[in-house]
């Protein structure tokens, strides 16, 4: 790599912050038992330096200057978990002015080609045990072949912090694309949302905090857990990708975890596991002590039912704060404190970052519009076109609806998917799920649009119950004083033991497959006589 001094990193906020942290934050910053690594900041910088040299070879740019490579803004893929390897790969890519593109691993292989068409990658970096998937992505490139490189780390003893510095001549604009994360893909192949290099660099330091990284790297939540932590000096414990609740509970039991941001599915799975396997365990108090050591627990991705929030507060002693954000917004944008999360249904709280501006299209209600430094800059392939999702004033049209209660925002649903077009008017799914979840015999509930030739869509309820057999008649009678008549369910399917919903790429409910599974042609669902 000509014209570059070893140990010199670009003159930008990313590497200035890392070198600053290396001087201030001592001790282990990443504990990754999945690959046997306990890394300090100096070790991270050493591994990034070695990986950067390997990447120059993989890009075929050995004879080019660093400034020349940086100017190309190459897109480099990553296949793997949100682990220490991801950190090494990401910062090596960024050190060469590239764009970090963690590839979506949960899509069907027949869609790999569609993803690769959008990405236009220069090469792929593969974590341990992900070589097969990396090779599958590689084979989908038809234009010009690209290389797959292993990620190198722990190749030598870490150099002292004084060995690393900033090369004032290697400047990279903070507005240059740097990160890509993928949407859930609930309506098709996931979309790659592009963010610039300043996505994480302005967050305040948190030296006394520790979190768990257990999500795939290609979700914004996976990137948050690992990469944001390294920008703020927060300790990261890596769990296996998509680890089960038993593994996660064991890590919590060990203590020291102080902050967690995770999905409804994550908290629900842990609550169910505790109820079924740990409540009567001799070590129950150890698990509870670990949970109660979590000072900040945010829940998002979809709206939690009140009973889940109360279980975490009253039984597990770890109150949850409802968070709202998205891949496009760059992560968490609003947060409700634990008591407000329970007392004001569907409340998503207030803005976390004062540098963001959030508006509702109709003043105190309507479509959520957002503008701020972390908002994405568009999708791969410009699909859909940027001008269709950002208005003339620069606000991202999120597709969510909300209203205000005092200074708080209350979530009403996704405009395209969280309202059922029933005969009497639109039925808000989130509102109905909250209402039904309060019935004492309901353990789990999903409100779904069930196609019907006569009315277009029925209001379908998929529920798991305790006690006696639930009928549609009883459910309607129990709801008649709670919800408007046109919102009453007209289809019911009770889940049996061992049955579960279909989930999408990001643990969210996959509506169409779930409707087909439980309300399809051979379904045993109960239907209400509509009297037409």
UniProtKB/TrEMBL annotation:
Superkingdom of origin: Eukaryota
Signal peptide, first to last residue: none
Family to which the UniProt record says this protein belongs: Belongs to the ATP-dependent AMP-binding enzyme family.
Organism whose genome encodes this protein: Aspergillus steynii IBT 23096
Domain AMP-dependent synthetase/ligase: 72-380
Identification of the protein by name: Acetyl-CoA synthetase-like protein
Pfam families in UniProt: AMP-binding
SUPFAM superfamilies documented for this protein: Acetyl-CoA synthetase-like
GO biological process, one term: fatty acid metabolic process
GO terms assigned for molecular function: medium-chain fatty acid-CoA ligase activity
């Amino acid at each position: 790599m000509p014209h570059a001094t070893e140990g010199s990193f670009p003159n930008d906020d990313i590497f200035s912050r890392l070198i600053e942290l290396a001087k201030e934050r001592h001790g282990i910053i990443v504990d990754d038992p999945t690959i046997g690594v306990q890394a300090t900041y100096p070790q991270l910088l050493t591994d990034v330096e070695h990986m950067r040299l390997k990447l120059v070879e993989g890009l075929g740019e050995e004879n080019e200057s660093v400034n020349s490579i940086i100017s190309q803004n190459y897109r480099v893929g990553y296949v793997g978990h949100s682990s220490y390897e991801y950190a090494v790969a990401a910062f090596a890519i960024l050190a060469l002015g590239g764009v970090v593109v963690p590839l979506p691993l949960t899509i069907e292989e027949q869609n790999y080609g569609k993803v690769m068409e959008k990405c236009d990658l220069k090469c792929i970096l593969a974590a341990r045990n992900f070589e097969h998937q990396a090779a599958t992505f590689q084979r989908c490139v038809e234009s010009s072949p690209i290389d797959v490189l292993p990620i190198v780390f722990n190749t030598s003893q870490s150099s002292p912090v004084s060995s690393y510095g900033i090369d004032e001549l290697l400047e990279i604009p903070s507005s240059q694309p740097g990160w890509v994360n993928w949407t859930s893909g609930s309506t098709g192949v996931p979309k790659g949302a592009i963010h610039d290099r300043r996505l994480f660099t302005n967050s305040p330091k948190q030296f006394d905090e520790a979190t768990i990284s257990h999500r795939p790297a290609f979700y914004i939540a996976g990137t948050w857990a690992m990469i944001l932590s390294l920008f703020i000096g927060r300790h990261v414990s890596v769990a296996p990708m998509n680890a089960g609740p038993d593994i996660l509970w064991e890590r919590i039991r060990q203590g020291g975890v102080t902050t967690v941001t995770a999905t409804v599915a994550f908290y629900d799975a842990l609550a169910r596991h505790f109820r079924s396997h740990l409540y009567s365990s001799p070590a129950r108090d150890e698990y509870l002590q670990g949970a109660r050591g979590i000072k900040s627990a945010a829940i998002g991705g979809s709206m939690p039912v009140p009973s889940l929030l109360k279980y975490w507060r009253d039984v597990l002693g770890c109150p949850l704060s409802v968070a709202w954000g998205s891949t496009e917004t760059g992560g968490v944008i609003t947060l409700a404190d634990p008591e407000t999360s329970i007392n004001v249904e569907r409340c998503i709280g207030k803005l976390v970052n004062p540098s963001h501006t959030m508006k509702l299209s109709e003043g105190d209600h309507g479509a959520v519009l957002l503008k701020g430094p972390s908002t994405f800059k568009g999708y791969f392939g410009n699909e859909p076109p940027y001008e269709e999702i950002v208005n003339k004033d620069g606000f991202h049209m999120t597709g969510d609806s909300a209203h205000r209660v005092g200074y708080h925002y209350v979530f009403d649903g996704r405009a395209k998917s969280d309202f059922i077009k029933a005969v009497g008017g639109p039925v808000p799914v989130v509102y109905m799920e909250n209402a039904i979840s309060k019935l004492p015999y309901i353990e789990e509930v999903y409100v779904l649009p069930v196609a019907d030739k006569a009315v277009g869509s029925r209001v379908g309820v998929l529920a798991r119950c305790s006690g006696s057999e639930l009928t549609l008649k009883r459910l309607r009678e129990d709801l008649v004083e709670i919800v408007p008549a046109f919102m009453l369910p007209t289809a019911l399917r009770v889940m049996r033991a061992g049955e579960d919903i279909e989930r999408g790429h990001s643990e969210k409910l996959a509506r169409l497959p779930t409707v087909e599974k439980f309300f399809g042609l051979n379904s045993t669902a109960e239907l209400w006589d509509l009297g037409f």
